[in-house]
TrEMBL record:
Residues 299-318 are annotated as: Disordered. InterPro entries: LysR_HTH_N, LysR_subst-bd, WH-like_DNA-bd_sf, WH_DNA-bd_sf. Pfam families: HTH_1, LysR_substrate. This is LysR family transcriptional regulator YeiE. Residues 5-57 form the HTH lysR-type domain. Keywords: DNA-binding, Transcription, Transcription regulation. It comes from Candidatus Carbonibacillus altaicus. PANTHER family: HTH-TYPE TRANSCRIPTIONAL REGULATOR, HTH-TYPE TRANSCRIPTIONAL REGULATOR CYSL. One of its GO terms (molecular function) is DNA-binding transcription factor activity. Belongs to the LysR transcriptional regulatory family. CDD domains: PBP2_CysL_like. SUPFAM superfamilies: Periplasmic binding protein-like II, Winged helix' DNA-binding domain.
Amino acid sequence: MFFPLEVFVTVYELKNFTRSAEKLYLTQPAVSGQIQQLEQTLGVQLFIRSPRKVQPTAAGEVFYTYAKRILAEEAALMRELDVHQRSLMGSLRIGASYTIGEAVLPSLISQFVSRYPQVELEVMVENSDKIMMEVCSGEIDLGLIEGMSSKKELVREDWLTDVLSLIVPPHDPLTKRKTPPKLKELEDRAWVIREEGSGTRAFLDDLFLKHHFTPKRKLILSSNTGIKEAVMNDLGISILSQYAVAREALHGDLALLPLADVVLERPFSLIYRPHHPSLRLEVFLDFARSWVHHIHPGGVKSGEDQGADESDEHRFQA
């Protein structure tokens, strides 16, 4: 990192360009060139050259003291970095809810392991309630869940804002409307919803309770994939994260609609135990916090997908 300083110190201590070149495995002209470049950069002469020996100037004496100190600091820094790198070696156990684990986490992990290949990630995907319990018990180090944590003993951070949408088949009559529906208008429809313990189920339960809403029929499924397939096959309508349905919306397999009277947003949260997080966990948390600034706030979208959303919004405003 500071090779010119190393060349200077070697020449200073050996008082000879040829012996310095041998010690550094360089040619004598290469050593002379390094010293000349350093003198030009500093604007001072560091050595008095003679055929028999090399003598440091007064400026060279001063520079030697600082150069030795800088090289010592560099060596200490490299040792510290080596300890840091070795501390990162090992496993980090992460748990994610289904929506995050299937639609968000793969991109985050891909970038993380590229930067920190020495960290061995163990990832499990369960519903949010199970993730909270396993963070509490110490079975996993970090949880990424939908909504808030019910476990007061855990540290919880808002991570990113999740935007949800009403999802219907593309041929559903709701897609022909010029204005978005109100929630109460959908009470006679069949709804496909997640199982208890799911973060998405908790969001819907709170939403339905707040608006005194009772679906006529409910089909309960334990995965987002099952819900999407059910909606595509006319078994009902649902509300899911835009992260979870981005691909189907892009390909025209599902239509994403807003509701006129409800804001469909919630936080995704990071949860972990408060005492003495490992270096691996601290590094992953810092990386995850930074990573969210590089994704679209409404979901992982391509330019085409974003354009499709804008056309839907324009249609409802017409």
